[in-house]
Amino acid sequence: MLSLVYVLAATLLVPRAVLAQVVGKPAGFGSAATGGGDVDPVTPSTTDELVSYLTDAEPRVILVTKTFDFTGLEGSTTETGCRPSSNTCGNAGQDAINAANNWCGDNPSVTVNYDNAA
């Protein structure tokens, strides 16, 4: 029991950044990431802070510890789209953006408004 107390105490004294390290190599597009080297990790607390960390020229290790909601921060777009036949719910269903090659075809045209922060 005493050794369990020592393990718990040691775990609580270890910096959070050490516990959050990733082991192994990322897959996909992340496989080319170089990281921030030996810099101290940063943990953004606001969306503005995260954007600042992602867009400045400093090498960084960014620990993302929560969900960041970008809804409304990048504006919105209104364009002509369509109501595909798969939308059987009318205004309550999902309409489509008319993507390349006239994806909408002969489906009925509708106005589509969407948030730019996908």
Q: Any idea what the radius of gyration is? A: 23 Å
Oligomer: single chain
The number of helices is 3
Query: Describe the biggest sheet?
Result: 3 strands, antiparallel
Number of DSSP strands?
Answer: 3
What ranges have pLDDT less than 50 throughout 5 or more consecutive residues?
Answer: 1-12
| Global outline | elongated
Mean pLDDT: 81
Bin the strand percentage. Answer: 5-15%
The largest beta-sheet arranges its strands as: 2-1-3
Keywords: Signal
What secondary-structure arrangement, pairings included, does this model have?
Layout (H helix, E strand, L loop, with lengths): L1 H12 L2 H4 L27 H9 L20 E7 L13 E2 L11 E7 L3
Antiparallel strand pairs: 1-2, 1-3
Keywords: Signal
InterPro entries: Pectin_lyas_fold, Pectin_lyase_fold/virulence
Short structural description:
Keywords: Signal. Helix content is 21%, strand content 14%. It has 118 residues and is α+β, with helices and mostly antiparallel strands.
